């Protein structure tokens, strides 16, 4: 399996068009904006290599019979779905962050199942090609990303009605040995520092939109691809402070959701053997749905545990301030725990009510998944309010580590930021920075990543609810229709 | 198994001190306040007798190897816990109401497990006696109630510090063949119309409170017991309208939570063979906890389905009004579905994470149970707001069926309460009454029944959360303590 | 001014088609369903006659220079608007109920201003006629009701597209001396027990809908009018219990919102001098808007005070239970106070930002009004949850006063429902009934009465918000357009 | 009056111990962390100097009869309170930020009124000295800050029980000509770039804590004072991007709440004429209360308008994306407007119900103020959720302006970030950055600044609510006590 060192070597050597803050990155392992995420991915590889964690970090491939990284493992049972939940919660515990690789796993599962069904129905050979690709990934233990999202232009317009037809990625040229694609995928988590990206459509397509119905796997360093890194408040901090410093808060991994890119496909060639959908617009609906279900499932494990980390930090700062016995503090910590479990519960239930698709891939229950994700959105904002109230104003107004290290200021800060006797002042500073690193950053992420927006959940929940069946029950009880046998 | 007819015969003949609205009830099967609940219990017996539903309505007793009503079945596996969830959801679908018998089942499971542990540790013979009692119930297919709640007097005082020492039920006399108990159990669901009640303490007791640490099973018609029925808005309606009428809303079963009593024990004799705890104060904590966990679990199935019924009624009235395609209506129906699943999800997860006690009884996960129940409290108020907004003002201002049947008024109402062509006006009236019957009544029930108040959930959630473990995670990530291996 | 006795005499003698529970009412002063509301209206007349309260209960008419009941007083200044807020809060304090007469006042103000503007623009003589009518009401101190709501049939259809053209009240015949109207007004508060009703359209109408654009004042006993009383849980209680009894909760006035009717106009003649709009469809928009603004304003005073009453009852039961110092109880009582003020605040602000119309009538600020009302909807459900949690399960399961008066049961209840020494058990029962009477009933009312549903507020708030102006501010600050001077 | 240029000159020349990111600042007008706030203060001075805005930006001093900056104006009437609300809303509109100077104004008003009362009661001469100081400030048009907050150490301990007695600022030496103070004030908005700070106690003190009961005005550049600037995500951005750049979002003023400091008093001399409280512990309660009431009042104007800016930006991005007509978008924009008004309403009401203190200073109503502030806390988190859902993922993952200006990347971004035809891509980028600058930053500020935490509001609301009066109303209506006359 891929070691941390292998991975760092790959990053050092790889030649890709990666831009950060307007400059091309020479060494992806060393860039301050990329580094915290590189550290997360490296940590996950280390954990996967540790026999102590192999149950949670790896699975046995039904394709090869060998142990593979759980991110590259296909969910062939309810247990696999439930394990994925534990997996992301475990990684959140270890890194205080999104583990960054769920989308790749989601895409592998979704395409595996869809290619199977396409071949059965249409006589195509996508599944066979996809199995070969999946084995390649599993055997080389590659880091795989994926992200559906096109830039999408004018939201209500169909792809071909857009001011620019490239607002959704599409095939611009058909060749005998493959296709040329053009477009731009947005919010692509770790595209710059992974090996492969799996590209899928982000919209349910119609017959006259076949050129948009394309799915494929591609080396992220392929000619014609450019990765432009996002720039937000969290990575501003990563530029200002050094990894490992107190100001990082989560000292090795920083503030999460700092590593997505605009991934531009400027007429990129994709060879036939890497193409897994090519015009079959009628399969875009199940493909997107399955991808989304998986994404929402793991949000449950991940976001719930992120709140657990806030609870832990809240418990710590309350003790440091002598407040841990106060009723309103205990009440708020308890509310945080309720919020955490209210995300986790429906996610577990979604996995437990998972079901098999014809290919053997298991999918979680859609209604319960979206419920978990929607609750995660609401809960994250609420959780940030609670932790900020528990912790106090220094979450937003702590001086920097540079101030703390300045000899003129050090004694002042040491003296005045102290609290309960015996607790080092530095610990107090650290825990405030930690709370800042989580609570000030991921809210937007909670909303947009991992299965989409609040509205996307509404659409799914509305779509999954059997309104007519429920109506019958009511009609029967109110005597409008006879009792249902 | 007990047939509906057997049960009604029992009610007709039984001699008990049951009072409704200040008058002693001669025939418990015919009293208008009791009748809707009698109908619910009868319906549940019918369903249990129907082979089509035997999987959900019955289980196989590990004590007798025979099929028993699921309410009298002990939860000896995760599957049993998960089945209980389906069981209450199914009965909610069939009756639009609380099924009334969960507490008896909870008490059976809790006492079974606790008596086992007491005997192992203390050398007592409670478990053997309890098995005999459980078999008696299973084999005679009896209707069993239970309810922890004492009247409790001054809340913060210990039982023996109360202005009246009987504010918690207690042993007032020890005899060679049994004990005499005195006290009053409040909010006792179906105590007046069941066969047996299982009485347990409602407070964690201390060494000097042994006379309060008493648990036993008792025939509800025993001398010295008086049942005074509750009186609330819902049973006011049951007095005013006739069962089966439109005004009942849920035409057979009326508005739920109409059948609890103050159950007074005025120096009642309990024979030794029916006593299952007698002074072992140190077991009151696990007994109460286990009872509570079971209660919260089934609330998940029940309350979630109650919201599904509101969704169904909301779908119906929206169609009748021509509003079912409007975006704000669809949005609110979808929010209702989210609320329903947000209760159900943690309940399923609690069952899935159920665990065995030494006796073999399975308990659901406490933290997830209380999360489901707390969400049920919040969601029920929110759901009522949504359904009332969807349905419109006639939820509270519909004229009565007597108006509708009055020849002078009938044509006016027929004409003016009409909506979409082809929908009979009577259907419109019925669906408003149905929404009234659910949405105007159970909110307080959602809060108090089925595992207790909002605050009770806070206490459990706070108690079940491993704040110190979570703290360690945060300390490790912020560099305060070394990485946790 | 009208004395309580005058009013009761009027009720005793009046001949009207009033139906309650399917039977024609002979004496409107004695019917058990109507009585609590009669008591409220009588109480308000008593208070208006009391010189001690004349500042709040009366105003000086700018039409006659004489003191008139504030419900019949036109709002000719900001102070009048602010006084109205105090007025309804005061009456809520005195009766624990909706004061029932706001809609009449709203209609007087709205029509006064609109008729003025119609006459100025169109040369009609509505305003003069309306002044005569308003003087008639003020000088005879009549009880005036109003309610916009038609039954409305299929919601999205225009009046003349409905399956029945009478789903909105309309002129069916034009005569030289007046018009014949047909239709049905729903949810008409106190129509059966007032003197006059003011009828206005409930929909913004178009040119081809002139027959629906009709407004008039009418004696409620006019031939052709039938009042069918609503029937809900609260009036079920009023049938079962006697006014003055403990079970009434609010012992004189019962549970509010128990007195609306379907008011049927079966070809009713309206003479010309009572017609204040006759085809001027283009004035339906401002008429409805102004009516609605007034309605939402007074909801602020009323609903806020209703929560204050819950706070008071919560304080009482907490003291009776020995819980008033507990942190979670104090916290919940404090949340209730926040909810109360969060309704009241925007209402005061709406009055303070009131503005004059050409006729001199003052209107409150629409955006702030709807904010207050929408907050009232949310807050009432939340408040009920909080008070139910504070008070405990007897809110829904208290035995009846008849049980308490039964000699067999009295001592049991006296003993077991006791709490803190020195607090009579009867007080404990009373306060539970009081909480039931408020918290179990008005939620739907909070939503539908007093300016309409949640969705109606959304429509107003959306309509009143200057999205484009706000946009300019954002564009300027982000450098998209130049700084706004 | 002070011109922008005067102010910048002052900043350039002043000699103070100001530290930013560990380094001493030579020129406070040029430091990138301080600059956006300097721009805000400068802008406010410009606006005050503009005759067009003099009504809102200035008032007439009752001390000097001259026009003074409204931040230095004492609130001597309800109108002054209401003007302050408009004042902060106006400045929020102009700067998209906290105006930074409210606390100084709050301190001026609170101390003016308290010194008056102390002198009347105790025969001291504080008020006379304070008038002289207030005139000095008004006449020189100085920028005045204030902030109560001490670092406070172990929260539940009294000042003199703390591990370090300096955790609350105190007098460490009494001299004939003044006192020496030591301590550290936290979260001191603009202390580094104002002229004067007014220092007051932050805790209600007791008799044995007189050395902590000290209030004074002091030049921020006084020897012994050190200002250590806060460091948070927003100022990290200010380091990384240049003022005026797109990445600033709010291009001139950046993300608000970027300019507080730890203000250390390392044995600082305060001359007698600047001391306004010196041991009168019994006046700390009203002083803190009045300061807090003022602070909460202006939060209402400020935070409400901040949400208006989000509405404006949401309207803009919805138009740019072709989504502005979609029902769920309109619904969310409307919810934002509701949230804005629900903050503003109680603030206006608090001002309208303002009352005079003996000195003539007007205070807003405490209960309504805290209601506005508590609503602001809840609403800001909710608003951020809504705007993030409206706007989409680029709020957190937009590439930087440096990327956009890079010739290799420019065309890609220009092409792919486009939306509706005719809207320049740069505008789309700008509006995302603007939303980021507001929605990603001020939540913690909403909670902590401007009158304190969620819990602080609970304490005030609980304290201000007349629970016993409300109880009497409930007791009367339920027949427990006679009717209240």
Question: Mind explaining what this structure looks like?
Answer:
Four copies of one chain form a homotetramer. Chain A is α+β, with helices and mostly antiparallel strands and 485 residues long. Helices cover 50% and strands 14% of the residues of chain A. Chain A has helices at residues 4-13, 35-49, 54-57, 78-95, 102-122, 126-140, 233-240, 284-320, 327-352, 366-391, 394-397, 401-405, 407-416, 425-439, 443-448, 454-464, 467-477, and strands at 17-20, 23-24, 58-60, 67-69, 144-146, 170-175, 178-189, 196-199, 214-219, 225-229, 260-271, 275-278, 355-356, 362-363. Chain A has a six-stranded mixed beta sheet, with no helix packed on it. In chain A, a hairpin with a 6-residue loop joins strand 3 and strand 4 (67-69). In chain A, helix 1 (4-13) runs antiparallel to helix 2 (35-49) and helix 8 (284-320) runs antiparallel to helix 14 (425-439). Chains in contact: A-B, A-C, A-D, B-C, B-D, C-D. The interface between A and D is large, with 93 and 93 residues.
Structure summary:
4 copies of one chain form a homotetramer. Chain A is of the alpha+beta class.
């Amino acid at each position: 399996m891929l070691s941390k060192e292998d991975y760092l070597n790959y990053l050092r050597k790889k030649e890709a068009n990666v831009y950060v803050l307007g400059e091309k990155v020479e060494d992806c392992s060393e860039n301050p904006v990329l580094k915290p995420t590189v550290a997360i991915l490296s940590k996950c590889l280390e954990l996967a290599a540790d026999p102590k964690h192999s149950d949670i970090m790896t699975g046995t491939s039904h394709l090869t019979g060998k142990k593979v990284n759980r991110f590259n493992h296909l969910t062939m049972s309810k247990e696999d779905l439930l394990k994925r939940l534990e997996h992301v919660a475990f990684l959140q515990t270890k890194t205080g962050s999104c583990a960054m690789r769920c989308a790749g796993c989601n895409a592998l599962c979704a395409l595996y199942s869809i290619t199977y069904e396409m071949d059965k129905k249409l006589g195509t050979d996508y599944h066979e090609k996809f199995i070969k690709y999946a084995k390649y990934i599993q055997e080389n233990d590659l880091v795989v990303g994926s992200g559906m999202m096109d830039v999408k232009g004018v939201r209500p317009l169909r792809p071909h009605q857009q001011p620019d037809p490239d607002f959704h990625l599409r095939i611009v040229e058909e060749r005998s040995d493959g296709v040329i694609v053009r477009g731009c995928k947005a919010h692509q988590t770790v595209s710059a520092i992974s090996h492969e990206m799996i590209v899928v459509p982000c919209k349910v397509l119609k017959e006259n939109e076949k050129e948009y119905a394309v799915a494929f796997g591609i080396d992220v360093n392929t000619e014609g691809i450019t990765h432009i890194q996002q720039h937000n408040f969290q990575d501003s901090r990563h530029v200002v402070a050094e990894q490992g410093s107190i100001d990082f808060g989560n000292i090795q991994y920083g503030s999460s959701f700092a590593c997505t890119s605009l991934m531009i496909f400027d007429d990129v060639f994709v060879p036939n053997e890497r193409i897994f959908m090519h015009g079959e617009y009628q399969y875009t609906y199940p493909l997107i749905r399955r991808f989304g279900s998986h994404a929402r499932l793991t949000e449950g494990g991940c976001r719930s545990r992120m709140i657990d980390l806030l609870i832990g930090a809240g418990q710590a700062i309350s003790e440091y301030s002598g407040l841990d016995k106060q009723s309103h503090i205990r009440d708020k910590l308890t509310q945080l725990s309720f919020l955490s479990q209210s995300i986790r519960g429906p996610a577990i239930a979604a996995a437990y009510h998972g079901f098999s698709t014809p290919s053997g891939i298991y999918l979680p229950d859609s209604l319960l998944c979206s419920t978990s994700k929607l609750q995660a959105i609401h809960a994250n904002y609420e959780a940030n309010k609670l932790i900020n109230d528990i912790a106090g104003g220094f979450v937003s107004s702590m001086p920097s580590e540079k101030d703390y290290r300045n000899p003129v200021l050090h004694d002042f800060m040491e003296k005045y930021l102290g609290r309960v006797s015996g607790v080092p002042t530095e610990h107090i500073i650290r825990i405030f920075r930690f709370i800042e690193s989580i609570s000030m950053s991921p809210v937007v992420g909670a909303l947009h990543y991992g299965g989409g927006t609040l509205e996307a959940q509404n659409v799914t929940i509305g779509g999954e609810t059997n309104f007519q069946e429920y109506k019958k029950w009511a009609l029967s009880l109110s005597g409008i229709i006879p009792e249902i046998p």
